[in-house]
């Protein structure tokens, strides 16, 4: 797996954990962490899909 995909996935998981901790403590600081988790999850998905599509295109050529 691509290093960027792994790093983005780890950051997304850590952001979700930070959001849960913030919400449990009664803070609204968890909202930006949830947004960060969504952004990183999308980044990981898009990079993985781009790599998969490039591999398929190279296999066809």
Descriptive overview:
- The chain has 61 residues and is mainly α.
- Helices cover 87% and strands 0% of the residues.
- It has one domain.
- It contains 2 helices and no strands.
- α1 runs antiparallel to α2.
- The protein is rod-shaped and about 55 Å long.
- 11% of the residues are buried.
- The mean pLDDT is 95.
List strands and helices in order, with pairings.
Elements lengths: L2 H22 L5 H31 L1
Helix pairs in contact: 1-2
Main attributes?
61 residues, mainly alpha, rod-shaped
Biggest sheet statistics: none
* Rg calculated over all Cα atoms: 15 Å
β-strand percent reads: under 5%
Tell me the count of domains.
1
Poorly predicted regions? none
The counted number of beta strands is: 0
Task: Give me the strand/helix succession.
Answer: HH
- Which class do the helix and strand fractions yield? mainly alpha
Q: Mean pLDDT score, rounded?
A: 95
Count helical runs.
2
User: What percent of residues adopt helix (DSSP H or I)?
Assistant: over 70%
End-to-end CA span? 23 Å
How would the global form be characterised?
A: rod-shaped
Q: What is this structure, in a nutshell?
A:
With 61 residues, the protein is mainly α. It has helices at residues 3-24, 30-60.
